[in-house]
Amino acid sequence: MFKKILKSYDYSLILVVVLLSIFGLVMIYSSSMVTAIQRYGYESDHFYDRQKIFLIVGAVLFLFFSAFPYKIMLSNRFLIPIVIFSFTLLIFIFPFGHSAGNAQSWYKIGPLSLQPSEFVKVSAIVYLSAVYAKKQSYINQFNHGVLPPLAFIIIVCFLIALQPDFGTAALIVAISGVIILSSGMNLKNIGKLVMLGAIPSIPLLILFKDKIFSSVRVGRFEAFFNPFAEEIAQKEGYHMVNSFLALGAGGIKGLGLGQSVQKLGYLPEPHTDFIMAVISEELGIFGVAFVLFSLGFIVLKGIYIGLKGKDAFGSLLAIGISGMVGIQSFVNLAGVSGVIPLTGVPLPFISYGGSSILQLSIAMGILVNVSMFVNYEKKFKETNDKKVETIPTNNRFEGFQIKK
Fold first, then answer.
1. Residue 268 pLDDT class (50, 70, 90 cuts)
2. Peptide bond into 270 cis (omega under 30)
C-alpha cells in the first residue's frame, strides 16, 4: 500500500514547485545584492540567506502537508482551531504588530518578520472549501447554505483592512469568489452575494475614504494612466518608468545573470514587487517564459486535480489553491507591466518574502496531497475494474471469467 501511495504522488507538480523556488532564490540574490548594501547596509547575500532559511522551513512544511491526509481538515476539530487561530493572529496585530510600509501588518520575531494575513489566505481556502463541501445537499438554500460561511471572510477582511492592507483583503475576497463560483451554488444565489457585497461597500468607502484614497494610492492611479508625464515620471511614476525600461532592455536573450542596470538603485524593490522586471532584463524572454509557463502549469494542474476529484472538499481545495496562485501572479505581473495599478503583491515562489513562501509551501503540500488521493483512488478503481472473478456454471464448456 505504501508503494502505491508513493507512486500516486504527482512528481511533475512537485518538480515545478522545486524548480520555481530554486530559480526564485537565485534571482533574489541577483536582484538584491546592491539594494542590501546601498539601502540597508547589509551584506550582499543578506536577503538570499534569509530566503534560504525560509525555503528550508517551507520544505519541511511542504513535506508534512503533502503526507497529511487532507480529509482530516474537514472535521470541526480542525476547522474551529483554524478560525480561532486566524482571528487571534489578526486581532493581536494591533497591540503587538510591527508597522512597515504605512501598515501595521507584521509580527517582529527577532530579525524576522511574519505577515499573518498571508497565512489567513490558506485558512480561508480550507475553511470555505470544508464548509461548502459539507453543505452540498442544500448549497442553494441562501440563508442556510450560502451565507453562514461568509461571516468568517467578512471578519478577517475587515481586520486586515484596519491595518490597513486593502490589497490583501481584496485578494482574499477574490480567492473566496473562486471557491464560491466552484461550490455548485446557482447563479441566482451568486447574484444575491454580489448585491449584498455591493451594498456595504458604499459606507465602507465613506468610512475609510482617507485611507483608501490616500496620496500614495491616488499617485499609483495617476502613474498607471500616464507614468511618463513630466510631473509624474520623477515622482509617482518613477517605479513604473524604470520597470518598463527593465522589461524592454532584456530583449530575447537578456543582458546576462547579474547584469541588470535598473536594480542599481533605480527600482525601489527589485527583489520583491519588481523581481520580474529584473528577470526580464537579465534573462530576457526565456526567463520570463520559464516563470509564466511554470506558474501556468501549477494553476492548470490545480484546476485539473479539482475537476478530476470525486470529493467536493478536495476539489474545492485544489481549485482554491490554484486560484490563489493564479490571482497573485496576475496581480503582480499586471502591475509590473502597467496593465493595472501597482499593488505590492509578491510574485509566488519568486519574490522575496518569508511569509509568502511559507504559506505557499503549506498550500502546495495540501494540493499535492489532494492530487495523491485523486490518483490513488483512480488507480484503485482501475485495478478493481480489471479484476475478474471465477463463477461456476452448469456448462463446463463455457468461459467462466466475468468482469465485475
1. confident
2. no
Residue bearing cell 447574484: 191
Grouping H, G, I as helix, E, B as strand and the rest as coil, residue 276 is: helix
Lookup: cell for 365: 503540500
Residue pair 348/275 in contact by the 8 Å Cβ criterion: no
38-45 contacts, C-beta under 8 A, 24 or more apart = 38/265, 39/265
- How many whole angstroms separate alpha carbon 246 and alpha carbon 165? 28
Q: Which is nearest to 277 in space by CA: 264, 289, 260? A: 260
Assess contact for 306 and 319: CB atoms under 8 A.
yes
Q: How far apart are CA 161 and CA 127, in angstroms?
A: 20
What is the CB-side half-sphere exposure of residue 196 using CA atoms within 13 A? 13
pLDDT digits (tens, 9 = 90+) for 203-243: 767 776 666 666 666 666 666 667 777 666 666 677 788 88
- Say how far apart CA 171 and CA 332 lie, in whole Å: 12
Classify 107 as helix, strand or coil.
Answer: strand
| Size of the chain in residues | 404
Q: 51 with 121: CB under 8 angstroms?
A: no
3-state helix, strand, coil in the chain (%, to 5): 70, 5, 25
- Run of H or E residues at 29: helix 11-38
Confirm if 31 and 260 have CB atoms less than 8 A apart: yes
The four Cα atoms 155, 158, 159, 163 give a dihedral, to 10 degrees, of 170
Helix, strand or coil for residue 235? coil
For residue 271, the one-letter residue type is H
Exposure of 335 in the CB half-sphere (CA atoms within 13 A)? 21
Put simply, whether the predicted model's pTM sits higher than 0.85 gets the answer: yes
